[in-house]
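[Q] Does anyone have a clean structure-token version of this?
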Amino acid sequence: MRAPTRFLPQTLGVVADVAAVSVLIVGGGLPIVWAASLGAVLLGVFAIWRRWGMPVDVWLAAGAAVAVAGAGVFGFSLATERNTPDRTPGLAAATSTPPSSSSAPSALSPSAAPPSGGVWLINLPKVEGGYGDWRRGEAAVGGQVFKHSYIGTTCSKSDDGHEVFTIDQRFQRFHVTLGIADGAPAETVTRFVVRIDGRALATRDLRAGQVDVLDLPVAQGKQLLLQVDNIDSPCSATAVWADAVLR
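[A] Here you go.
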């Protein structure tokens, strides 16, 4: 009569493992993956404990498999997060540039000034936000490659949706091209918001394939905030602030 009790944790463990692997594959947020995989490990260990001292059967084997699989998913996702901090979205065949022996990695090194003057936004340190899948580098939008871009996550349920930069009234204009990185599903819709000291300067809702260009006054601003809101975007898509420059 105890079979249903043993069956419950093993079944939940299998479901948790499948969910964790599925979320990882489609690009879901790492906090979800970590929670699901650790939950699978605990449930698997619980199943083994319930069968400890009994003859080995399919339930004991299932409990061990669930625990091992959960631990494997957790370890793999942790290694992926540590080893790929500056991935480049929207490029079918991106080619990385090896870092100079006398400088920091190229993805984090200051870029040359824009041809028309000013400062690339990627050269300014962020002061708030941006955890999760935010990064700097190249991105393809509308079939064009932009080399000085901020790439924001569309996974608003698990990752942060904004980054903040201090500009301290040093600039007059903020120029940027907005769009979803090429390769995103056609139904992707993301909201881009630019704020100065908490005040919204511009809001744009863009679908995959759409591109918009902003040129905004920022002369009186002290902090610039870039915000991404997920309207209907899978976590495999990314929002691009392409060649964002302050002048």
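[Q] Thanks! Anything notable?
[A] The longest strand covers residues 144-153.
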